[in-house]
Amino acid sequence: MTVNDQDPYSVSNYDADPQETAEWNESLDGVVASQGHERGRDIMLSLLRRSKELHLGVPMVPTTDYLNTIAPENEPAFPGDEETERRYRAWIRWNAAMLVHRAQRPGIGVGGHISSYASSSSLYEVGFNHFFRGQDHPGGGDQIFVQGHASPGVYARAFLEGRLNESQLDGFRQEKSHAGGGLSSYPHPRLMPDFWQFPTVSMGLGPINAIYQAQLNRYLTNRGIKDASDQQVWAFLGDGEMDEVESRGQLQVAANEGLDNLNFVINCNLQRLDGPVRGNGKIIQELESFFRGAGWNVIKVIWGREWDSLLANDHDGALRTLMNVTPDGDFQTYKTEDGAFVRENFFARDPRALKLVEHMSDDDVWKLKRGGHDYNKVYAAFKAASEHKGQPTVILAHTIKGYGLGKHFEGRNATHQMKKMKLDDLKLMRDFLKIPITDAVLEENPYMPPYYKPEDNDPRLQYMHERRRELGGYVPERRSKYTEIALPEKKTYDIAAKGSGVQEVATTMGFVRLLKDLIRDKEFGPRLVPIIPDEARTFGMDTFFPNAKIYNPNGQHYMSVDRDLLLAYKEDPTGTIIHVGINEAGALAAFTAVGSSYSTQGEILIPIYVFYSMFGFQRTGDALWLAGDQMVRGFVIGATAGRTTLTGEGLQHADGHSPILAATNPAVVTYDPAYTYEIGHIMRDGLQRMYGGTHPDPNVMYYITVYNEPIQQPAEPENLDVDGVLRGIYKLQENDMPGVKSQILASGVAVPWALEAQKLLAEDWGVSADVWSVTSWGELRRDGIAADHFNMMNPEAPAQVPYVTEKLSGAEGPFVAVTDYNHMVPDLIRPYIPGDYATLGADGFGFSDTRAAARRFFTIDGPSVVVRTLEQLAKQGKVDRGLVRQAIEKYRLYDVTAGTTGSAGGES
Ligand SMILES: Cc1ncc(C[n+]2csc(CCOP(=O)(O)OP(=O)(O)O)c2C)c(N)n1
Ligand SMILES: [Mg+2]
């Protein structure tokens, strides 16, 4: 009989020798009866430890007692001058609160958060004074992810450091209107590009991005691009934030890759915005089991040093039991009351625990601190985390929300949203923090209590500067200097210009072939980083596996099933491809880390993130918004795009709107190319813009939609209007046939339909149509809006003409536009079309069918373009209205089975 059920609590547990087992149980019973519960526990924990050493496969214990992981006797001595550090911490805390309070002055009232930083200032200060390395440190700088709404504390520190002045503090949240500039609400590199490195305030994106930042540091090291092995990533997170899917969803990546350069510090103040995180439960215990299960090293910092002696005297475990069973909601409430309340409602539940504090006054009971506010405890945890090898570490620090802000703030459910302090609160806080500001000054103008900063030569300020000098400079700091790398030469793009001859090749495949050639470029090639969420085979990128290899820091330790194949699946610590598994959120985090390497690490890397276009802007739009904030540079490739082109896949796959979503992101330049030669120019221009060193705005991501419909790729026409390709529109095919004129605008996969319509119009109806390839509806719109704005603000100047208006100005006839997307895509440029404009589009949900049937259903195929054009011409009185009905009947436009536009099948 085999033992499959290893759950020790299972009723059906198999036992090979019940009698022997009973004897062991009796021994344990005996120990407990004679020596008490504590001794019984000791023995059981010791046996569990031994079972681990003997590799008995006993299921692990997911949680430990509600105690500090590091016992007092194992704590290192605190290396700093605690008194001094606490003094300037008080100044920072005061200034942080005043920064927010003053931002509520009459006429301003721009909000802000006080309580989160108040709860976490010790966590940050221990880091700033002893751990976080600046970028001038010989080992390179650490990367610090600051909890978004704790930003006032970081500004307040920078003020003491002399990096920000009082006027800037008063410009908090008035970024445009405050004279001399303001401060952004939260960490936004885009808005404060010399200061912030990592945007964090969209809950959940900080944790996942920190994991992939740590991965990037390893990746750079393993690939020999830069030795980042001495740098650590510190991510400060909220306990409420840990409920976000992205916060917990990638913990296994950090564990599997052994990212011991990564430290999460979770500020467990037990509260989120509205109230308790787990009123009935214990968030620290829940997170402990979750992280441990994922393979992380867990360090709990729950109690301050005042509890040490109580716990040392807690011989029968009564106090520990109370700690274990008290729900978070009660712990929160205690801190809104007083020492007598704590004695009665916490300790008095067990007379043995009550006895432990009988010698203490209520005031002393009140001063029993939470671990996250104690420098010794926090320092011990940070040191252990930074030295831990083989695993990432999470520090779970128990704190009080609104700590030190007085009775109206501490532990209150509403504390997150409270911004203003009453005069009495100000005085209490001033006293608590011992800030030398008089009552009279506070009373004079309670809207504007002064900041506090001593003279520059104050020894405590000097000490603070010295700590930062020793650690390699001030933090946070963002740099954007990087090592230059020569861009690929023009001829590297030749393959894109050549066309495919008689062979039919989809633009996805055309793009992949080009990428392959770019990667071959000796100097620049290694800087291109393909990122794929388990779709390489779909896009024909499995051809990259053998040479570029899949990055795996652990290598490949199994006998690979396809080891003899040419296209073997190859994992390697020096691999180039970041393969994140089926995981678009992780892919975006990797994209963000890789695409900002130029800034965080001073090394250029170009992320080429290729994905199912439906699962890009739609699924991970917020992460792409963050990437824009972080000033990421790179390429986002929406493969298998279009609502009717990805045959058979249906409603959840058929993308008919990603260009619209992309157009809303100011950092994204969107292209919908029809042919590979267009892609070649777009890629080249993109790299030039990002790293050519001449463009005024290089901090952009190029979103390029490519398709899986095989078509004959034409060779690049001679005298191609390259400027037109890059700016968004060029004339692809003129028709000089005499007769009624019309203009067809199309993009991407719809360009061949436009050409089909051009032919049908000529042959069936004697109408001459020119065809324009619109490579970017979004860029044309942006250009138009810029012209509108200029004209509004400069009424005296000659009016600017939008590029598309100018391009189409001599074109005759109605304009008809078609794409494989929603009508909204061509409608983006409606205001700038110099004439009658009609659009066709695939609105509504996609479905699975043949390309031809789907295009007929949405009336976007070749014949549909013909009918729309005739209708527009009839409206203009240029053809007989009867022709429209004739055309509908001729093509059976109402019959989905009569559609013929597009090829069948095609994998990529
Ligand atoms: C994705 C997202 N949803 C909601 C918010 C609004 N929000 C900002 S802070 C916050 C509560 C944070 O609680 P916690 O993570 O526990 O941090 P604490 O302030 O308690 O340290 C919420 C809901 C947000 N910023 N991002
Ligand atoms: Mg919280």
Automatic annotation (TrEMBL):
Its EC number is 1.2.4.1. The keyword Metal-binding applies. The keyword DNA-binding does not apply. Residues 728-861 form the Transketolase-like C-terminal domain. It catalyses: N(6)-[(R)-lipoyl]-L-lysyl-[protein] + pyruvate + H(+) = N(6)-[(R)-S(8)-acetyldihydrolipoyl]-L-lysyl-[protein] + CO2. Residues 488-713 form the Pyruvate dehydrogenase E1 component middle domain. This is Pyruvate dehydrogenase E1 component. It comes from Aurantimicrobium photophilum. The lineage of its organism: Bacteria, Bacillati, Actinomycetota, Actinomycetes, Micrococcales.
